[in-house]
Amino acid sequence: MENWEVVIGLEIHTQLATKSKIFSGAATAYGAAPNSQACAVDLGFPGVLPVLNQEAVRMAVIFGMAIEAHIAPYSVFARKNYFYPDLPKGYQISQMDLPIVGIGHLDIDVDGETKRIGITRAHLEEDAGKSLHENFQGLSGIDLNRAGTPLLEIVSEPDMRSAKEAVAYMRKLHELVRYLGICDGNMQEGSFRCDANVSVRPKGQAEFGTRAEIKNINSFKFVEKAINHEVERQIELIESGGRVVQETRLYDSVKDETRSMRSKEEANDYRYFPDPDLLPVIISEEFKAQIKAQLPELPVAKKQRFKEVYGLDEDNATQLTSSRPLADYFEATVAASGCDAKLCANWITGDLSAALNKAGLEISDSPVNYPRLAGLLARISDETISGKIAKQVFEEMWQHPVSADDVINAKGLRQISDSGAIESIIDGIMAANMDQVEQYRSGKDKVFGFFVGQVMREMQGKANPAEVNKRLMAKLKG
Amino acid sequence: MHTKTIIELAQGLRAGDFSSVELTQTFLNRIKQYDTLNAYITVTEDLALQTAQAADLKLATGEANLLTGIPIAQKDIFCTQGVKTSCGSKMLDNFLAPYNATVIEKFNTAGAVMLGKLNMDEFAMGSSNENSYYGAVKNPWDLNAVPGGSSGGSAAAVAAGLAVCATGTDTGGSIRQPASHCGITGLKPTYGRVSRYGMIAYASSLDQGGPMTRSAEDAAIVLQAMAGFDPKDSTSVDCAVPDYLAGLNTSLQGLSIGLPKEFFGEGLAPDVAAVIEAAIKEYQKLGAIIKEISIPNLNLAIPAYYVIASAECSANLSRFDGVRFGYRCKDPVDLTDLYVRSRGEAFGKEVKRRILMGTYALSAGYYDAYYLKAQKVRRLIAEDFKRALQEVDVIMGPVAPSVAFGIGEKINNPIEMYLSDIYTIAINLAGLPAMSVPAGFAQHKPVGLHIIGNYFAEQRLLNIAHQYQKITDWHQKSPKGFE
């Protein structure tokens, strides 16, 4: 293994989040009854013609700008010809020679190092339908709801040198397309899927080895496993005197292995040629300027800003900028609460994220929205409640649509900072526990915690902890 | 009634001389009487009479336009909702289109009465109408001759008075050549002038629908209804449609007519040449100036066309796979069998020939030599015409090198058949508008004059044809037995 270098390039299909299909007016929503979202155009009926969805073009251009790519002023749709029952026209409309997005790049972080991964191109195309092979008594069913869904196929350079780098690139891209609002990123539903080109070469060799392409991997975990498995297979093959053949392979996640689908010889001749039904796509400088003005702040810039403006540490800044809705939630909470940004960050990455994870919810579906969380944090900030009581209040707010103040008032959780009240409690506890007082005074500092616990219990946790500490210290010292 | 112009019929309908129902019935009767011509694939009798009734109501309330209540027939390449749309093929013999082509919608909106769907070469591939699954169409001028193709049913129906007017489509001459062979007026508009939505594609970059009528005046009315930008067709052009009728009477004084020397060389039958020369003389009487010009790359048009059209059709016809609509073979054993037999059993010989040629031309290793080269030739030809049309206003010549040939005469010689489209094909490659106008007879069969104009010059072409038809009566002749 240590004598070999791994070379990986990824082709990632991102489903663009347009409302209608790339060449027809049919809806793109996932999960509808089979063939209920396919119109005459999607079904490839005689005489129908494609009309390009401008929103898909806009999204492709946004992506191109986000990876600082060359945006083609003139790009062309081509027909990719092959027969399959879920491909209604007998050809897929894609882009071949002149893709809409040219050379760009994406920076990834692996083991504390930043590495730049080249992106060769990104092109627009339509998705095919789905063939269903179960429950049809030996026949196949065809669902064409997905036929015509817009895809942006993003092709990387063979710049990755490990499965880990490939996963980091895929995650970064996944984060980016969701940030840009051009893809929902739902991998179970196939909105973001990956083909991996993998080869190995002896360290120091300039030429690439023969590659195998692993098709249709739809999770980060499987990408890593599939690549690692394929690398092992290729090295073992070469070391035992064999030769890697150029082929398409399929990853079987159950058996954790890849197996051959078809060799280069069996590959289709797709007979690409420009689609005469569609005009070339012309992107003007004005259009580009317009898109640039609408471009959202990208993750790298946002993270930097969160560190500088809010004083967040690396971990919090990374976590909060991992998705745009989360970052927006954080900034809205800071603004609404007027609290210290670090307090907000700790709560959002801590208690709120934990609760969301447990419930399997996204930030946008959080039962506690930002104004309510801000209300809670404000009460911590002004010392109405302690952080510990706040957890209890949050729990209540998660279950019921109530404000922090409602909970605090209804349950009488307001923190007691009145030194007189605290002192009289302390006096009572000291009187009842003279042995422990003696221990403390003879130098057993640990006993201090015992007194804090007793006081807090007596006051049902509502005492201001700082005040308790201060008063207890003074009294115990005598 | 079947020889009247659209304007005469519209006046008759308004004057109460006859109703649209009566007019429609007259044509339905004639269609039955002359069904040996085989011009129609489907006659929509009930639908026609219903539409005629509705048209009569519109006429009574004054909401009508020129085409309201006028019986028209549609080439069976245009999708008609709920009505069989066969494209002349066994593949679509069972196909009821689920929607209307834009052109059909436009005629429906105008209140025209559809009599039925017209015979054609299978998927518009052919120059004789002998490639139809529904059998050959006979030429009303000579029942042993072909009507031309692919819009052979349209040309025969209009010539024989089985419809007031018809639609056709022209990919390499499929409106003009049958119009010429049947002695009617046919216009292929500029590529992009008429929507292709719902017109079953043969070669998408060349296909264009247009009117096939008894006169230029009728063609102006029918084109007016068909033309215009369609958001459903990305290749349709968003430019204003002029009032074609209003332009008919412009003077031709000073019109410069170019005669490409390549149109009058070897291969042109002398009797056809004589008719064309006589027609040119008529134009000189109208004040036109004649100039010899050259289209140097004309001889490359046929090979370039058969590469491009075949390449496009090889992809366009892939959707006919037996999966979702159309013909499906009996009891397929697996997917390959389903494909191979459904397509093998339902496509005719010429369609298969062109799919194979196109597939070959697009294959890895051949693409540059065939497809790319043909595209370069296409640009050269377009430039030839562009240059010529800077010198002259219009170009004239023959539509076809000879008059209508006999049924069966060329069917086993595809190359000879292809060569009969020499003058028309180049126009499609350039995307220009062109007409065929009846100009006389040779061997008792009609000869059409070819008039080619600049992009979107349909109004000028109609004007030029109309002025000629005002001083000649070739377009008013009816074939014997169909008077």
Automatic annotation (TrEMBL), chain B:
<feature type="active site" description="Acyl-ester intermediate">
    <location>
        <position position="174"/>
    </location>
</feature>
<keyword id="KW-0436">Ligase</keyword>
<dbReference type="InterPro" id="IPR004412">
    <property type="entry name" value="GatA"/>
</dbReference>
<dbReference type="InterPro" id="IPR020556">
    <property type="entry name" value="Amidase_CS"/>
</dbReference>
<keyword id="KW-0648">Protein biosynthesis</keyword>
<keyword id="KW-0067">ATP-binding</keyword>
<keyword id="KW-0808">Transferase</keyword>
<feature type="domain" description="Amidase">
    <location>
        <begin position="22"/>
        <end position="462"/>
    </location>
</feature>
<dbReference type="GO" id="GO:0016740">
    <property type="term" value="F:transferase activity"/>
</dbReference>
<comment type="subunit">
    <text>Heterotrimer of A, B and C subunits.</text>
</comment>
<dbReference type="GO" id="GO:0005524">
    <property type="term" value="F:ATP binding"/>
</dbReference>
<dbReference type="Pfam" id="PF01425">
    <property type="entry name" value="Amidase"/>
</dbReference>
<dbReference type="InterPro" id="IPR023631">
    <property type="entry name" value="Amidase_dom"/>
</dbReference>
<feature type="active site" description="Charge relay system">
    <location>
        <position position="150"/>
    </location>
</feature>
<dbReference type="InterPro" id="IPR000120">
    <property type="entry name" value="Amidase"/>
</dbReference>
<protein>
    <recommendedName>
        <fullName>Glutamyl-tRNA(Gln) amidotransferase subunit A</fullName>
        <ecNumber>6.3.5.7</ecNumber>
    </recommendedName>
</protein>
<keyword id="KW-0547">Nucleotide-binding</keyword>
<comment type="function">
    <text>Allows the formation of correctly charged Gln-tRNA(Gln) through the transamidation of misacylated Glu-tRNA(Gln) in organisms which lack glutaminyl-tRNA synthetase. The reaction takes place in the presence of glutamine and ATP through an activated gamma-phospho-Glu-tRNA(Gln).</text>
</comment>
<feature type="active site" description="Charge relay system">
    <location>
        <position position="75"/>
    </location>
</feature>
<dbReference type="GO" id="GO:0050567">
    <property type="term" value="F:glutaminyl-tRNA synthase (glutamine-hydrolyzing) activity"/>
</dbReference>
<dbReference type="GO" id="GO:0006412">
    <property type="term" value="P:translation"/>
</dbReference>
<comment type="similarity">
    <text>Belongs to the amidase family. GatA subfamily.</text>
</comment>
<dbReference type="GO" id="GO:0030956">
    <property type="term" value="C:glutamyl-tRNA(Gln) amidotransferase complex"/>
</dbReference>
<dbReference type="InterPro" id="IPR036928">
    <property type="entry name" value="AS_sf"/>
</dbReference>
